[in-house]
Every structure is written in C-alpha cells, then in structure tokens.
Amino acid sequence: MGAKYVLVCEDSIDGIFTGVYDGWKLGTPGVQVELRVEVDGQTELFSQHLTIEADEKKAVKVAGTIQRKLGQEVYEQLCYAACSADEQKGTCIYYALKEGLAGGKANPRVLENLRNPYILKISRLQLAVWHEMHRFLGFVRFRELQNKILFSVICPDYAVLPLIAPHFADRLPGENWVIYDEKRGDALVHPAGDEWYILRQVEMKPCQEDACGEERYEGLWKEFCRSIAVSERRNQRRQSQNLPIKYRKHLTEFC
Asked: From 20, 107, 211, 245, which residue has the greatest number of CB atoms within 10 Å?
C-alpha cells in the first residue's frame, strides 16, 4: 500500500485550489491524496494529515493553468463544484484535474467523462450550485442604511457569494454594498468604485437604522406586488416551485 496524504483546506475556492497546488507535488505514482475542507477530529492510520493555509498566489496559478489548458468552461464548473457543501468536493476536483492534465497533455473535454466517479460527482455538484446561484441573482434584496450602504442578508444552501459577486459589482459599481451570508458568517463587501472582497467568519449586523424613507419604499414595493397579483390566477404550487419558501425570509415582499 502506498502513502496517503490528507490535506485539510479552507472551505473556499482559493483554499481548495491551494490544496490542489500542494497536493500535486505530493501525488507521485502510488501516493493517494485526499483534500478535505472540514476537520472531523479523527485521523486515519497510515496517513499523514497536513493543514493547508489558503494562498492566493498558489490559487491563482492553479486557476490560470485550468483556464489556459482546459478552458474557461471547465474552470467555471470546478468553481461551482468548489462552492458546494459536499465533503469530497476537493478530492473530486483534484483527481479530475489529474485526469485532465495526465501525461502532460491537456484534455479540455475531461468533464465529459462521466464514467469517472469523481467527474460524475463534480457534474452533479456544479449543476446544483449553478441553479441556486442563478436564483440569488434575483432573490437579493438591498436596503439602504443611514450611512448610504446597501445591505442585504441571504441564507443560501451553498457558498454562492463569490459566484454572484461579479453580477452585482457590474450593476452597482458606484455603490457601497454588502451581501451577508448568515449561514456561514461570510460577507461580500464592495466599496464604491473598487474591487469586491469576502470577509470570512464575521458577525455582521447593520448598526444603524434604515435610511429615511426606506420603510416607505418598502411599503410601496409590497403594495405594487399586491396590486399586480390576480387572485383568480393564484397558484401556490407554481409559486413555491419558482420561489421556494426557504428563500422568502429575507425577501421584502414576503416580510
């Protein structure tokens, strides 16, 4: 039996890509590499556990290699999978890249090989995350605080903040805004006219009251939603399919 390395990484795209970078050097023939994003407190016999700190430079190198050799589509699918909640996602990404770059020859169609169990799982994970990410492009509701900061709270099943960030940065480039993932304690922060970034494991609550008139605009929005509704054509089942109840907690029109 060959050696086995268990690399414990930060649960983020950068964390997993850093694990791939370090694991690549360890993954010689006969050596098994596993990437984990959580510490379960248990250690396996005959395996070496290593804690990997997220390194932006290493992550950028891995991302660049994927984009350059395997293409933008493969890169995006791996990023979606990295944002899932599956404990094996890091290992799946590592071995998918091993196959895609095997023998020094890049295979841009590597994620089409669904006979590979790692790639099959990536396909399922990325699809689930993609669906939720697109939901939140329409489900985010901002409210303006007295300091002119736009603030929103969401509670997604997956870590979609880095996936929705480009969308809102493109549409609100001149605004100071924050989207807070209350499930993970992560905050997507965008200073006006600058690049967005993510603060991890923070407790964030708006410390000021809403801006003057905010409650009035919320009332107008709720009244608008009521006015355009046709009671005779109300279909609760279809509404629940298009806008599941679990997402309504932070939607203004349902508060």
From this structure: 20
